[in-house]
Amino acid sequence: MGFLYVFLTSLILSLTAQSDIPYASIEKAFVANDATNIVALGKDKMLINILGKEGAYSQSQANLVLKDFFTKKPGTAFKFIFKGKESADGSFAIGTYESKGETYRITLHFKKIGADFKIESLIIEKA
User: Fold this and answer.
1) What is the DSSP letter of 75?
2) Which residue of 77, 85, 98, 127 is surrounded by the most CB atoms within 10 Å?
């Protein structure tokens, strides 16, 4: 009985210690054009490339840059088409974003910081 208790406790702790990339939150934020929630999932400094204009931005600057994009290109749909394997270093994912009949490719690179995955870079390009 004691072995079962230790095993179940270890299993529960190992499952809760895992940190998955918050794909669902990112999808919801893109559909809602919510720059604040996207940036909140990022590192303190994020590399953002929107349609060829690239820069390293603090979270407050990144928020303004993304809000500007969403104002000009309000989204109607977003979905991930590829989710890379999570590793000790990080991962990446590719999605499609639709706005006003146009499709954009979104590439996100994640860096593992402590137990969490944070957005390190975000690239938006015409598909």
Assistant:
1) -
2) 98
CA dihedral 31, 34, 38, 39 (to 10 degrees): 160
Listed residue (83, 115, 77, 81) closest to 99, CA to CA? 77
The matching CATH number, chosen from 3.90.550.10, 3.10.450.50, 3.40.50.2300, 1.10.1040.10, for 21-126 is: 3.10.450.50
DSSP string spanning 5-70?
Answer: HHHHHHHHHHHHH-----HHHHHHHHHTT-HHHHHHTEEEEEEEEETTEEEEEEHHHHHHHHHHHH
d(CA 57, CA 59) in angstroms, rounded, equals 6
Backbone angles phi, psi at 67, to 5 degrees: -60, -40
pLDDT at residue number 19: 53
pLDDT per position as a tens digit, 91-104: 999 999 999 999 99
Instruction: Report the candidate in 124, 113, 110 with the shortest Cα–Cα distance to residue 21.
Output: 110
CB count, 10 Å around CB of 11?
A: 10
